[in-house]
Each structure stands twice: as structure tokens, then as C-alpha cells.
Task: inverse folding
């Protein structure tokens, strides 16, 4: 069965997916590249808009037993019946803030993505789409790819159950909600 690697921008999805693909001889399917190539994506200011129904239909025939699908859109466009494991890479929001600033994201895009990470939106959506038994979180903060690949392989083999991640206590402890949320 296929593997999904998802998470917010900047958590290391593509780097890790490439490493796993090489190590395990999986076919790498980059959801964003597929959407662009198929003309299912449009630029809209500083975001890309995707017709998720068209993309989901387009992806169905592409997913094989030894496929890795990578992208933050996975919970919205991948058929869960073909997926064995979903890895949601997570990263400390303070580290992500640095990543987004280096990428020159707009203030709105930074807050949207950091809010999503802190609240675990992609994790929640992955669980809703693929189920709790297939969805695993990994804290990618301060980790090197080799360590993350080893952990993912253990999850695939079901000898590791992933991490439990909740960034809200960290933000609350620092009384730093205004850095990440408009309110």
C-alpha cells in the first residue's frame, strides 16, 4: 500500500519523501507538481488555488502500491483506500517562523501556516480522511533526515507509533499567542 507524507510548508516533506523513495524504492508523486502539470492549479496573489475534486480524480490512477504521495494537500485529494500510512511532519512553530521569514512569505501567509501548525489542522484533516490507525505524527524539529527516515520506516513496519504533538502549551507558556494569531 502507498505512503503519504504531509504537513505544513517548511517541515521537510519533500526532503524526507525523496530519502524514503530512494531507500525503499518507492515512486515519488509530488502532489503540487502533478497539479501544476495537469493545469489544476492557479496562482491567486501569494497562494495557489487547487480544484481538489479534479485533482483527486486525476491522482486515483497514479497511485500504486509502492508510491509516496507528498504534499500538504494530501488529506484533501488522496483516496484513503489506497493508503497504508500517513506521516504528518510537524515542526516547532518558532522554527517554522524562521523558515517562512527566509522564504519571504507575506505576513498573512505566515500567520495562516503557523496557525495551522499550532492547531494541528493538517493532522486533524489527515485523521478525518485516512483514520487514526493510518495517521502518524512526527516532530521534525531539530531532526536530520536520516533520523526521520528511520522513524518513518519503523512506523511503516508498525514498530513505532509516532509522536504526540501539541504546540499550544508552548505558546501559552511564552504567552505568545499574538505572534501567531490575529485576535
Result:
Amino acid at each position: 500500500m502507498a505512503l503519504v507524507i504531509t504537513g505544513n510548508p517548511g517541515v521537510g516533506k519533500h526532503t524526507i519523501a525523496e530519502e524514503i523513495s530512494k531507500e525503499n524504492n518507492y515512486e515519488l508523486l509530488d502532489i503540487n507538481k502533478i497539479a501544476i502539470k495537469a493545469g489544476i492549479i492557479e496562482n491567486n496573489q501569494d497562494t495557489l488555488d487547487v480544484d481538489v475534486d479534479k485533482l483527486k480524480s486525476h491522482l486515483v490512477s497514479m497511485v500504486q502500491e509502492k508510491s509516496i504521495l507528498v504534499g500538504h494537500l494530501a488529506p484533501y485529494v488522496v483516496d484513503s483506500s489506497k493508503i497504508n500510512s500517513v506521516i504528518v511532519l510537524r515542526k516547532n512553530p518558532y522554527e517554522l517562523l524562521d523558515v517562512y521569514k527566509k522564504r519571504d512569505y507575506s505576513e498573512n501567509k505566515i500567520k495562516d501556516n503557523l496557525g495551522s501548525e499550532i492547531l494541528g489542522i493538517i493532522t486533524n484533516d489527515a485523521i478525518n480522511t485516512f483514520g487514526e490507525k493510518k495517521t502518524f505524527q512526527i516532530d521534525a524539529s531539530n531532526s536530520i533526515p536520516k533520523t526521520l527516515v528511520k522513524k518513518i520506516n519503523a512506523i511503516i513496519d508498525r514498530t513505532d507509533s509516532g509522536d504526540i504533538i501539541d504546540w499550544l502549551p508552548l505558546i501559552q507558556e511564552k504567552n505568545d499567542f499574538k505572534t501567531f494569531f490575529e485576535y
About this structure: Residues 107-119 form the longest helix (13 residues).
